[in-house]
Amino acid sequence: MPTLKNPLLLLTTLSLLFTAAIPMADAPRPNVIVIVADDLGWNDVGFHGGDIDTPSLDRLAAEGMELNRFYTTPICSPTRAALMTGRDPMRLGVAYGVILPWDTNGIHPDEHFLPESFLAAGYQTAMVGKWHLGHAQMTYHPNNRGFEHFYGHLHTEVGFYPPFANQGGKDFQRNGVSIDDQGYETFLLADEVSRFIRERDRERPFFIYMPFIAPHTPLDAPQELQDKYRDINTDLAPARARQTDNTRRLSRLMLQDSARPMYAAVVDAMDQAIGQVLATLDSEALADNTIVLFFSDNGGAAYSVGGADNAPLRGGKGETFEGGIRVVSIMRWPGHIPAGEKMTDIMTVMDVFPTLAEAAGVEPRNRRRFDGHSLWPAIADGVAMPRQELVYFASETPIYGHFNLTAFNDEWKLVQEIEQDQLETTVTNYLFRIEDDPNEYNNLAQSHPDVVQALSGMIRDWRALYPINGTRSQIMPPPGWRAPRDWASYPIPLSELQPGPAPGMPPDKTIERILDFQHGDRGRLSYDCTPKWWLGGICLEADSD
Predict the structure, then answer these.
(1) Distant-in-sequence, close-in-space partners of 309: CB < 8 Å, separation ≥ 6
(2) pLDDT score, position 537
(3) Is the Cβ–Cβ distance between 146 and 467 less than 8 Å?
(4) Is the pLDDT of residue 6 over 80?
(5) Over 50: is that where the pLDDT of 536 sits?
(6) Which helix (H) or strand (E) holds 246?
(7) Mean pLDDT of all residues belonging to the chain
(8) How would you classify residue 315: left for phi > 0, otherwise alpha for psi between -120 and 50, otherwise beta?
(9) How far is it between the farthest Cα atoms of the chain?
């Protein structure tokens, strides 16, 4: 190896090498913004060829990477639970239905939330928008799940204009205190995120969670946007799913106006709000060191009053065909994520927590085992990460006793529709090879009965993990139930709650284990516990690292 005879040159060379190493060790951690739409359709963005103007989302797709096979649950509370925990909603007791105003449940306080890890790593954390993960006790409140700042709504369906309310009870708050901010809800959220960014602590990175209500029903938008889309095409392609297409058919028979024009106006407004946030990042010179992740919480609400379009995908919200669970998703981090490309590996909402943690260099503080895993190598470096294990999703919404289920990986996808009547249960199976048939035209169930049987058994075992008092499709309140006047005052304060979870009716843990065993595949009494079939189905302990 040649030697350097010039001492000055040697010192300069060593200095350059040392300086080059510093950014790797001391590079500032990226800011993170997770933006979630509510019921956005696959075909409702410009970069998918849709007829709604979405220049901000198109910009993110051009400057970032489209996560082309990003999957969520078919309905919103389960997706949000999976996002926050990196875990399967079936384990959490929030899988079949959403958390409704009269429900008292939420996500178990022992579960570790995504913002808690970022907060522990020195991030300032904020949530702006729709929560929908529990409201009856302060243990479930955003300010007790890792968010230093919360501005928004505990519930869904609060409307787009004041008074923002659910079941007649006011639902708009800042950190537990009711507020009366006026304006269009979508734009209010953008204003608050922009304000938080501008007024941030500049010594700390930030993590912002921005879950829109848009474009969820009941739809409403500024008049100029309604006028803009008055003549949009309303003759959408069939969803090829019985429940969704039946609602469209009934709507036409009843001579109801199409929801499509108003839906388009709501999507346009949401895109404008996203554009405002991106402009704030630009003006604050933060865009290059901010990860922006966007996705919809489930497939578009393609039923009659929803107005979404998932074509050419089959089905929509509430269903486990691709249109209900494969959603629009983009991730941007200039200089770290290739621009204008598509990732074709399967990524699920359960993978977001570990993926963002790895990307940002944040240590996940979860005690219970992730069901998701990091896709950062596939996103940043193009490493192939085929999905060998099965992904499972479920929904019972909106029809009680009608279950939509799926299990899939890179090779097979089984969709099951299960109709439970009082005296019989009917199961309809659809089997697809999504890689060859992404739009689910060819049902292979009859030609591959062995695959159907194997996947059906795996779905049954998976469903056996469900806590027996988990969410169901109970879309009406208990008889006579009354809503509060103001939801900000509804959660029971921590000081008025006992220190630990209630034990339930079994007198001790031994009896609980016996009863858990007797329940078999009907569901679990013991929280977060997988039955050990080699021990006769006994559930011994919670699953944790």
Answers:
(1) 41, 42, 43, 44, 50, 236, 237, 260, 300, 302
(2) 67
(3) no
(4) no
(5) yes
(6) helix 242-253
(7) 93
(8) left
(9) 93
Higher per-residue pLDDT: 478 or 17: 478
Beta pairing class for 206-211 and 402-408? unpaired
E strand or H helix at 326: strand 326-327
| Contact criterion met (CB below 8 Å) for 31 and 122 | no
Which ranges in 27-133 belong to alpha helices (H)? 55-63, 76-85, 89-92, 114-120
Architecture of domain 32-381 in this structure: 3-Layer(aba) Sandwich (3.40)
Give the span between the Cα atoms of 47 and 359, in whole angstroms: 25
What tokens were used for 373? Answer: 């895993």
CATH T-level fold of 391-500: Arylsulfatase, C-terminal domain (3.30.1120)
Rounded Cα distance, 301 and 286, in Å? 34
Task: For residue range 90-140, list pLDDT tens digits in order.
Answer: 999 999 999 999 999 999 999 999 999 999 999 999 999 999 999 999 999
Q: What percent of the chain is predicted at pLDDT more than 90?
A: 86
Its pTM stands at 0.93
Is residue 112 part of the annotated active site? The answer reads no
For residues 498-525, average pLDDT: 89
User: Buried (b) or exposed (e) across 206-236, using 16+ Cβ within 10 A?
Assistant: bbbbbbbbbbbbebbbbeebbebbeebeeeb
The domain limits of the chain are 32-381, 391-500, 503-545
| Separation CA 200–CA 124 (nearest Å) | 8
Model confidence at 4: pLDDT above 60: no
Select which of 48, 76, 108, 153 is catalytic: 76
Alpha-carbon span 432 to 389, nearest angstrom: 16
Compute CA distances 481 → 9, 164, 477, whole Å: 81, 20, 6
353: number of Cβ within 10 Å: 29
Residue 74: is the preceding peptide bond cis (ω within 30°)?
A: no
Q: Which of 108, 112, 132, 155 is catalytic?
A: 132
Query: Residue 437 corresponds to which tokens in the numbers above?
Result: 């048939």
Residues 6+ apart with CB under 8 A from 487: 101, 135, 154, 155, 166, 169, 170, 171, 173
Edge-to-edge strands of the sheet including 391-395? 391-395, 402-408, 413-420, 425-432
Distances in whole angstroms, Cα of residue 119 to Cα of each of 64, 113, 358, 369: 26, 10, 15, 20
8 A C-beta contact, residue 400 and residue 474: yes
Check if 336 is active-site. Answer: no
In which band, very low, low, confident or very high, does the pLDDT at 489 lie, cut at 50, 70 and 90?
very high
Strands 165-166 and 169-170: antiparallel
CA 75 – CA 325 distance, rounded (Å): 9
